[in-house]
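To: structure desk
From: M.T.
Subject: fold request, one chain
Message: Could you run this one when you get a chance? Sequence is below, nothing fancy, just the single chain.
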Amino acid sequence: MKAWVLEKFGYDGISFRDFDLGELSDGEVLVRVLACGVCYRDIIDIEGGFKYTILPTVPGHEICGVVESFKDDGQVPFSKGDLVISRHGPFCGRCELCLSGRDNLCQRAGRFVQTMPGGYAEYVKAHWSAFVKVPDSLAKKFSPSHLSIVFCAVGTAFRAIFTQGNVRPGDFVLITGASGGVGIHAIQICKSASAYVIAVTSSESKAKILEDFGADYVIVSKDMRFNEQAMAITNGRGVDVIIENTGSVGLEGAIRSLKLGGTLVLIGNIKVDRYSLNPGMVIVRELNMRGSVGINNNELQKLFSFIEQGKVKPIISDEFPLAKALESHKALKEKKSIGRFVIRVS
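Reply: Done. Structure tokens follow.
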């Protein structure tokens, strides 16, 4: 099959060529890839941000495809021809995390890209638990490109807002990176929860678009020190919850925008670097700081219903053919997206 194969970290170490996935093991499923979302983590993967990645590998963890075959271990829940989307990877179902409903954190079974080839390819294989069947109602309503981003882009926002952020009606929620793949869905989800949304972007040209998606206020900040504007909007009180998509780039402004006792949910980073935190600022203001990754299986089923009800719609900025997948990375670095870029495979 054809795939983008990463043999050494850096863009000079990736090429579009033939790649052999090998034979299926017990419980593994072979999926013909139809579409693969482009996450900023893909750039970090290629540039070596995850040093434990096993090379060679294939980037891409936001996959929608069709089940071609499988090696049944007596538990495979799919049939040939089923339309599925990927999780970030399989889960073991036996560890403390899985048994407590935090299967999104299980790392015993591996992760796409880091321990197994991902979706910038014509085919992908993994243990069946790495995939979820798409409900027929959504398969009829949305394209594979739209469905490919449901778990990561839409699901990450869903978990961050309802589970980790506990957003309630009337809350002021500030969203950084608001025009990106997670941010644009976070706006929709927050509005469905009757919250007030403050969207932060570094691009003046995107302000009106963010308003059209439901943002009550838009802050354009080139240097990402937007806390004074956020405080002015909330009459000096500060925001209840922050959905932080940029990591160290926007973290200082985010922390300083919180109300006393406010919550910051950190779900993204566009630079793999360190951030110097002033502990006193967190202590005396009793701030809550939480990470959030992906979405667990129970939440995903709720999200499917949420999408079916029209409370959030997957937003695609543009599609790229597989052979030109890396052009999407250039566009992403140039901040040209509104929502997710997607690689259309077949």
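Reply (cont.): The two ends are 13 Å apart (CA to CA). Let me know if you need anything else for the meeting.
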